[in-house]
Amino acid sequence: MSDKITALVEKITAALIAYRRDFHRYPESGWTEFRTTAIVADKLQQFGYTLRMGRKAIMEVDMMGVPLPEELEKHMERAVRQGAKAELIQVMTGGMTGVIADLKCGEGPTVALRFDIDANDIEESSDEKHLPFREGFASQNGSVMHACGHDGHVAIGLGVAELLAEMKDEISGTIRLIFEPGEEGSRGARAMVSAGAVDGVDYILGIHIGFQAKKTGQIICGTGKFLATTKLDVTYSGKPAHSGAAPEEGKNSLLAAATCALNLHAIARHGQGATRITVGTLVAGQGRNVIPPNAFFQMETRGETSELDDYMAEQSRRIIAAAADMYGCQYAIKQVGGTKSGESSPEMITKVKEIATAMPFFNDIIEYSSFGATEDFSHFMTIVQQNGGMGTYIMIGSDLAAGHHSNYFNFDESILAPGVELMVRSVLDLIGRK
Ligand SMILES: [Zn+2]
């Protein structure tokens, strides 16, 4: 397969590593990816793409789990200090990070590629054994780290963008690149889908470094059994009272929340497939001798299918309301994350397999693997499939220094170039050629 594409990939290999290291040095977590988005947008514009940003890329009412305005403000300032163009940052006011980029090359199908761009709330290791630290590109942003490989995904995205732009005259169709914010916590896809990110999309591809593909040279061509999820923040408000003199005057939010937590875990499991539920935090009360007027907890449900997750979420809402009623408290539910289940399209898996087989780099080709966890990509893919299109989620194998979301996480940079090559060849196979 030594041809024009191979030559183009070789030409940008050093740039891919430089991109990756730059994004790794300045990681940003969900809805604060101001610098990352600005750098990406600037490049895409240079390559000739038409961009949608801010309100054109993100539907505000569907943004979930957005940090407080003062937090966002701080991150916007930091992004400019760290080299982002101020005019691009302004467009993202309110945390509307991420970008949708189109390259229209005449009549033909629309092929979309999704790249997630956010980092994790983790303090990166400053151990000499940790390569990013040793080589001087460890996180400069305290308590945030690219510990899932999304820095690599952004780099691959830019590589793909550049190569496809160079091959523009040979393509017939539209290329759409979706750089998604807030993938962690399943927060970004819904707001992008409602802003039209996958309107008119015939094929969609997603990629992740590592996960089940733990060796360099390995590839998983399609993934399924993504768990659907709903993430809720729940607040109870009651009434404080003296615990000795007048407990009968209080409304006990702590007991409402505790009763609720126990009964959420007791929801009858559905006969049609696997479900999960977790109350992960619970804080309540003000003092030892005060009837607790306040309680707050964070919970999530998951389901093998979107319907099963809907069942768990609906039952949860009923129990939250009933527990409030038992203790005479008020309650409020805020959805802070959520995504659909998903299954890659068999035809697309076959195509990716053929392409990977023809690339000497891949020596361990696995057709399909079940994900068994949640990925916001499944939200994009499911909507594309509902509209009559197809999609697949690929895992590019990499030797990993430590597991995902570990402070020692690092992947093998030699996979970036083959990642670009695989994506470019897949797009060229799906889209029309002149
Ligand atoms: Zn990830």
TrEMBL record:
Gene3D superfamilies: Zn peptidases. Pfam families: M20_dimer, Peptidase_M20. It is an enzyme of class 3 (hydrolase). GO terms for cellular component: cytoplasm. One of its GO terms (molecular function) is para-aminobenzoyl-glutamate hydrolase activity. Its EC number is 3.5.1.-. InterPro entries: Amidohydrolase, Bact_exopeptidase_dim_dom, Peptidase_M20, Peptidase_M20/M20A_hydrolases, Peptidase_M20_dimer. Keywords: Hydrolase. Residues 233-311 form the Peptidase M20 dimerisation domain. One of its GO terms (biological process) is folic acid catabolic process. PANTHER family: PEPTIDASE M20, PEPTIDASE M20 DIMERISATION DOMAIN-CONTAINING PROTEIN. This is Indole-3-acetyl-aspartic acid hydrolase. It comes from bioreactor metagenome. The lineage of its organism: unclassified sequences, metagenomes, ecological metagenomes.
